[in-house]
TrEMBL record:
<dbReference type="GO" id="GO:0000052">
    <property type="term" value="P:citrulline metabolic process"/>
</dbReference>
<dbReference type="GO" id="GO:0045429">
    <property type="term" value="P:positive regulation of nitric oxide biosynthetic process"/>
</dbReference>
<dbReference type="GO" id="GO:0016597">
    <property type="term" value="F:amino acid binding"/>
</dbReference>
<feature type="active site" description="Proton donor">
    <location>
        <position position="161"/>
    </location>
</feature>
<dbReference type="GO" id="GO:0006525">
    <property type="term" value="P:arginine metabolic process"/>
</dbReference>
<dbReference type="InterPro" id="IPR033199">
    <property type="entry name" value="DDAH-like"/>
</dbReference>
<dbReference type="Pfam" id="PF19420">
    <property type="entry name" value="DDAH_eukar"/>
</dbReference>
<comment type="similarity">
    <text>Belongs to the DDAH family.</text>
</comment>
<feature type="active site" description="Nucleophile">
    <location>
        <position position="248"/>
    </location>
</feature>
<protein>
    <submittedName>
        <fullName>Arginine deiminase-related protein</fullName>
    </submittedName>
</protein>
<keyword id="KW-0378">Hydrolase</keyword>
<dbReference type="GO" id="GO:0016403">
    <property type="term" value="F:dimethylargininase activity"/>
</dbReference>
């Protein structure tokens, strides 16, 4: 049961953030509206939302998920793989002290982005990407092992982050897209396959009794509703332009 979420307001520098997409420049005003709707969606799921102020020094800092991994047993502060984002963890360390007595850290040369970490009950999956290296993944595995968690490490071939294309919905249901469809690491799950043309919707967020999905992907929305979940749609067009998905915009615990 999730009780809390942490988000960060968008700065005007957001439009200058890192991206690999060719979808054009984000519209700052539209992004503000979409972010407010995202926060309201979290609240509808029954959690208290802590909203951090903008930090213009870090254009990508609204994507708070990459700065930490939060579990019922401990918080782990990451070491983001993009040098321009690494300073984002400094404030997050202090914020998490209000919620956690036990905080762990990934140390250089290890790199880890929270977007590459998926928790399924007492098991973690960590993707090796351009932002998460083997040293970071192995550190994560060792740290979480102290708390009784197992970890599987999965090299990525196509996706930017692990959770770009695979997300756990609970009840053994796993949303999979692209390279994760029929992936051997996920053979034990009930896989909900995302069509290629709706690939962006592979990143959804299960929050208590609801699943938050990006707006405009009818096929994925229908499949999730057929499983019995209450679906909340949120427009994400401006974040998609910056390689951001629904899970990227919050830390949930």
């Amino acid at each position: 049961m999730f009780k809390h979420a942490i988000v960060r307001k968008i700065g005007k520098s957001f439009v200058n953030g890192l991206t690999t997409s060719d979808l054009g420049n984000p519209d700052y005003e539209k992004a503000l509206v979409q972010h407010e709707a995202y926060v309201e969606a979290l609240k509808r799921c029954g959690v208290k939302v802590t909203v951090l102020e903008t930090d213009e020094r870090y254009p990508d800092s609204t994507f708070v998920e990459d700065t930490a991994v939060l579990t019922p047993k401990c918080a782990l502060v990451t070491n983001p793989g993009a040098e321009s984002r690494n300073g984002e963890i400094d404030e997050m360390k202090e914020v998490l002290k209000d919620f956690y007595d036990t905080i762990e850290y990934i140390q250089s040369p290890g790199m880890l982005d929270g977007g590459d970490v998926m928790q399924v009950e007492d098991h973690f999956y960590v993707g090796l990407s351009t932002r998460t290296n083997e040293a970071g993944a192995l550190q994560f595995k060792d740290i979480m092992g102290k708390y009784g968690y197992d970890t599987s490490i999965i090299p990525l071939k196509e996706f930017f982050h692990l959770k770009t294309g695979v997300n756990y919905l609970g009840d053994n249901n796993l949303l999979v897209a692209g390279e994760f469809i029929n992936h051997e690491a996920f053979s034990g799950f009930n896989q909900i396959t995302v069509k290629q043309e709706e690939g962006y919707s592979g990143n959804c967020v299960r929050m208590n009794d609801c699943v938050i999905v990006p707006k405009g992907f009818k096929g994925t929305k229908k499949k999730i509703e057929e499983l019995g979940y209450t679906v909340i749609e949120v427009e994400m067009s401006e974040f998609q332009k910056q390689d951001g998905g629904l899970s990227c915009l919050s830390l949930r615990f």
